[in-house]
Design goal:
Elements lengths: L1 E4 L13 H5 L12 H13 L4 E5 L8 H11 L6 E6 L2 H9 L10 H9 L4 E6 L4 H8 L11 H11 L2 E8 L7 H13 L4 E6 L10 H10 L3 H14 L1 E5 L5 E5 L2 E5 L15 E3 L5 E2 L8 E3 L4 H5 L4
Parallel strand pairs: 1-2, 1-10, 2-3, 3-4, 4-5, 5-6, 6-9
Antiparallel strand pairs: 7-8, 8-9, 10-11, 11-12
């Protein structure tokens, strides 16, 4: 995966297990123009490594920066990557679907989403902890001025109407999705609402020294243990048909017609030296791991250098 970090650390959710809090924000550049020379090098390197998927993500929430997403999509067009995805908490998309207006990014409109689709964005990957609104509200709105979690089924339908493939990325933890029974209920929801892809992964504490003790404490206390993860994996293996094994240990199954991927939230793979992801920041920094500052390929440049690049 070729990951592009959109925007800054700003986010309209307050997830207590946020990986960004554990891995820090020191590498997030000040807002400024995208440093195109290094972006083109990153695209070339990704294609040399036979990368098929571009994932626009963030240390915060990407949809707060719709103009930046549009600019990246335009820059990506000449490279012809077949799959381009956006990872989001989809709060603003959900409110847009329900009320006709996004609450935190007024510049995000249905027309914006349609433009992204025309520019090559294929898939919206929605980060949730459950198919149930009460679980998602408790986690995503715990430090928010908003209290009503938008209806997930309506959000999915809205994105389907525009033409997007929808993936639910479920962060499994205690009290939400934490057992084979809950995974089965989640899969039934996905079938009912024609969710194209479902990824389930446990929340984890990073292997590198954490920069957020409260976040690490939450993950330690609320993360499902190895025995619970094994029980879920065994249930999926027993009830599904394995379709594909990915290089970083994830596996994709068909479970009663539903696409299900059992994965992990970290980027290092102990089985070898293959790079699982390239990570590009707008100042030109290129890395290959979220946890370790030493996983650096290209350094970022100053805002002055970015402003002086040829238009």
């Amino acid at each position: 995966t070729f990951s592009i970090v959109v925007g800054s650390r700003a986010c309209n959710a307050g997830c207590p297990f946020c990986v960004s809090h554990m891995t820090g924000f020191t590498e997030v550049p000040k807002r400024g123009p995208i440093y195109v020379p290094n972006f083109e090098k990153a695209c070339r390197l990704a294609q040399l490594r036979q990368t098929t998927t571009v994932l626009m993500t963030g240390k915060g929430e990407p949809t707060l920066y719709p103009e930046e997403i549009s600019e990246y999509l335009r820059l990506l067009q000449p490279w012809g990557f077949p799959l381009i995805e956006l990872q989001t908490n989809a709060l603003d998309i959900g409110w847009l679907a329900r009320d006709g207006v996004a609450r935190d990014s007024k510049r995000l409109t249905r027309e914006t989403l349609q433009e992204w689709r025309e520019l090559g964005l294929n898939t919206i990957a929605i980060s949730v902890v459950s198919e149930r609104a009460k679980h998602n509200a408790l986690v995503y709105l715990n430090r928010s001025r908003h209290k009503d979690y938008p209806d997930l089924a309506r959000t999915i339908q809205f994105l389907h109407e525009i033409g997007f493939t929808v993936r639910l990325c479920v962060m499994m933890h205690k009290g939400a999705v934490d057992s084979p029974t809950r995974v089965a209920e989640l899969i039934e929801f996905c079938r009912a609402h024609e969710v194209d892809q479902l990824t389930v992964r446990p929340i984890r504490k990073t292997a590198a020294p954490t920069q957020s003790d409260p976040t690490s404490l939450y993950v330690t206390e609320r993360g499902i243990d190895a025995q619970e993860i094994a029980a879920i994996a065994e249930w999926i293996e027993h009830n599904g048909t394995r379709l594909m094994s990915l290089m970083h240990g994830a596996a994709v199954y068909d479970v009663g017609g539903q696409n299900v991927c059992l994965s992990d939230c970290l980027t290092l793979d102990a089985s070898g030296d293959d790079i699982r992801t390239l990570i590009f920041y707008s100042d030109g920094r290129l890395a290959y791991d979220w946890q370790y500052p030493g996983a650096k390929i290209l350094r970022g440049v100053s805002e002055a250098v970015r402003n002086s690049q040829p238009s």
